[in-house]
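Lecture notes, part 5. Sequence design as translation. It can be helpful to think of inverse folding as translation between two languages: the language of shapes and the language of residues. The source text, in structure tokens, appears below.
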């Protein structure tokens, strides 16, 4: 049975997409079968792995009901039709683009579709990571409904910590209304700059909000340009900058995440 993890924070630019791509790549490199779902109309996760000519179907084809044709209702595509390979062995991707923005206008019952589709097409994977959009809307609800765990990246500054209570409220609503089993996996401090006083305090600030977001991972992800450069090469930072400190931190976070998921660590597999 796969474990589904939503990477969420309605705050923009805190590292949701980066954490999703690096964790999912690290888990695949460790030998797990991993599916990563781009649940953000910005499509940043998608473009960080593949060019748009390698896919036709996207998450919007799966989650958005097509217009009826000649009065006949047309079903959206099954999730399996939108899965493509990424450049990393063992890591598959469901791409997204701007068309996914229309999901916010879908009827409420479509919020359940991602969960239903994952029950069928997620079975072949050990882990599924969902990159959530930076809004508290229907897409985030659909992602949280489909997930077993939420992981919250937080940027290491005062601005980056704003709005955690809104996210906690949304998670609580999802728990109460549709998914009582949803668990907080924890918060990751990202974009950490040891030289800044504010960053030194931010761990305390995140931990002060611990009742809101749960466990704070020991590994802080520092602000390293290698991490920002890796997507342009369609590589995970752990391969783009193998011997850089950034790679050590990402592996260390992966180990912490696997431990919290009660999944044993496996040896590193080869890359295509
Ligand atoms: N640890 C890091 N070191 C250096 N750059 C980083 C790091 N984490 C993220 N970035 C960069 O910061 C920017 C924002 O990161 P990212 O896109 O992952 O955030 P996000 O939360 O997904 O944003 P959005 O809310 O728009 O979806 C990107 O340019 C990314 O490359
Ligand atoms: Mg993003």
């Amino acid at each position: 049975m796969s474990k589904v993890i939503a990477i969420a924070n309605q705050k923009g630019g805190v590292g949701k997409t980066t954490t999703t791509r690096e964790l999912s790549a690290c888990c695949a490199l460790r030998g797990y079968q991993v599916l990563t779902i781009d649940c953000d109309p910005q499509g940043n996760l998608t473009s960080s792995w593949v060019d748009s000519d390698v896919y036709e179907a996207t998450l919007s084809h799966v989650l958005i009901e097509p217009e009826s044709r000649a009065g006949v209702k047309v079903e959206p595509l099954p999730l399996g039709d939108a899965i493509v390979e990424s450049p990393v062995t063992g890591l598959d991707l469901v791409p997204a683009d701007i068309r996914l923005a229309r999901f916010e206008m879908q009827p409420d019952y479509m919020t359940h579709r991602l969960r239903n589709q994952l029950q069928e097409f997620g079975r072949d994977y050990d882990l599924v990571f969902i990159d959530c959009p930076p809004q508290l809307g229907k897409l985030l609800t659909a992602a949280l409904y489909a997930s077993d765990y939420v992981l919250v990246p937080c940027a290491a500054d005062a601005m980056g910590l704003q709005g955690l209570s809104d996210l906690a409220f949304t998670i609580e609503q999802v728990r109460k209304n549709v998914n009582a089993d949803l668990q907080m996996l924890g918060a990751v401090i990202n974009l950490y700059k040891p030289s800044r006083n504010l960053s030194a305090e931010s761990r305390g600030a995140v931990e002060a909000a611990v009742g809101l977001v749960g466990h704070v991972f020991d590994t802080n992800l520092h602000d390293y340009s290698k991490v920002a450069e890796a997507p342009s090469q369609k590589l995970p930072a752990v391969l783009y900058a193998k011997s850089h400190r950034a790679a050590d931190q990402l592996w260390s976070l992966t180990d912490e995440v696997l431990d919290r998921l009660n999944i044993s660590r496996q040896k590193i597999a080869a890359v295509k």
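The translated text above is only one of many valid answers, since several sequences can fold into similar shapes. The domain at 3-260 is CATH 3.40.50.300 (Rossmann fold).
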